[in-house]
Design brief:
- It is a single chain.
- By secondary structure, the chain is an alpha/beta fold.
- It contains twelve helices and 13 strands.
- The strands form four sheets. Strands 3-2-1-4-5-6-11 form a seven-stranded parallel sheet, sandwiched between helices.
- Helix 3 packs parallel to helix 4.
Length: 345
């Protein structure tokens, strides 16, 4: 008998792609795709189960299919369908609690992989240049998806203590980009004009959605020689981009906003449909965030195919041309940077 893998969040683009990739793995016998709504994309030969992970019924799904590996993809910043921020938070936090409770009772579960985020580190003016997995945040995220991720990881640590026989792997992803990216930051970069915080040019780090699928497969697989598929790992591509470089490559002009009025801009962005453009997202676009990937390479044994710049370039191509030619945006940004530098002198 091969392995039986259950994937939550299968109705989302990334979840569906992971399901289809798992089906091609020779040691995987069956894939159980779970979500509260039927997916609009194909799932190949996977068995789809329409179930809300916030409900106790998820325990029956684990038992009926004798699942041995759970990949929890349903921790996300964006709603599926018409759900709002409240629905997203309930799914992230309450759904994870129910799923972990079901895994705790299941005698067949032997491996758990959880999709988390580097947003658990927050973004603050006195942050270290590079976060490692053991670096504590200067201040815990106060809201939005970042706070959800912190709570989710807390529940996962509790589960790992109660079930030491289960290999638990938490993957903290940098901002995921690519042609199919669905996140508040992807929505921000898709705006015709990018509001920025005046006087700040944060460092940003990305990971391509193809690499997301590849590393999830590594984490869900049995450990290879010299690797350990359990623990907490930062997952990000090599290199960083400044926000100003991103705007140039997109061909989208920026509008610097004074720091005191940034919260008003965040409120406006939420009004136009960016449901999780929370204060934590604004802090990211103010102070940035960069993480170390030494553990990802050395312990997990994974090397991303795309660099940060390549991941962003693939995303930019999928969004089409901006309002202005990239060269014109570059000249404008350079002039603004020069003016800001003179003002500071």
């Amino acid at each position: 008998m091969g392995r039986v893998v259950l994937v939550t969040g299968a109705a989302r683009q990334l979840g569906g792609r992971l399901v289809r990739r798992l089906l091609r793995e020779p040691e995987v016998d069956r894939v159980i795709a779970v979500d509260a709504v039927p997916p609009e994309h194909r799932l190949g030969g996977a068995e789809f189960v329409c179930a809300d992970i916030r409900q106790p019924a998820i325990a029956r799904v684990l038992a009926e299919h004798r699942v041995d590996t759970v990949v929890h993809m349903d921790v996300t910043a964006t709603p599926l369908g018409t759900g709002g921020r409240t629905s997203v938070k309930e799914n992230n936090v309450i759904g994870t609690m129910q799923l972990l409770g079901a895994c705790q009772k299941s005698p067949t579960v032997r491996r758990l992989v959880v999709k988390s985020s580097t947003s658990v580190y927050g973004s603050a003016p006195r942050d270290p240049a590079v976060f490692t997995e053991s670096t504590p945040p200067k201040s815990l995220p106060s809201g939005g998806f970042a706070k959800d991720a912190v709570e989710v990881e807390g529940y996962v640590r509790g589960f790992a203590r109660r079930r030491p026989d289960v290999a638990v792997c938490v993957l903290r992803f940098a901002n995921i980009l690519g042609p199919g990216a669905d996140s508040p930051l992807a929505e921000y970069f898709s705006l015709p004009v990018l509001p920025t915080v005046f006087g700040y040019d944060p460092r940003l780090q990305f990971v391509h959605e193809e690499d997301v699928i590849d590393v999830l497969l590594v984490a869900a697989d049995e450990p290879r020689r010299g690797t350990l598929n359990s623990g907490t790992f930062n997952i990000a591509a090599d290199g960083v981009l400044l926000l100003s470089q991103c705007s140039r490559r997109l061909g989208r002009p920026t509008v610097p906003v004074p720091l005191p009025t940034v919260n008003w801009v965040g409120t406006w962005l939420r009004t136009v449909g960016m449901t999780d453009f929370s204060p934590e997202q604004i802090r990211l676009l103010t102070h940035g965030r960069v993480v170390s990937t030494d553990e990802m390479r050395g312990t997990l044994g994974f090397v991303p195919t795309y660099t940060t710049a390549e991941a962003f370039a693939d995303f930019a191509r999928s969004r089409g041309a901006g309002l202005l030619p990239p060269a014109a945006v570059a000249r404008t940004v350079d002039r603004l940077s020069t003016l800001v530098a003179k003002e500071r002198v």
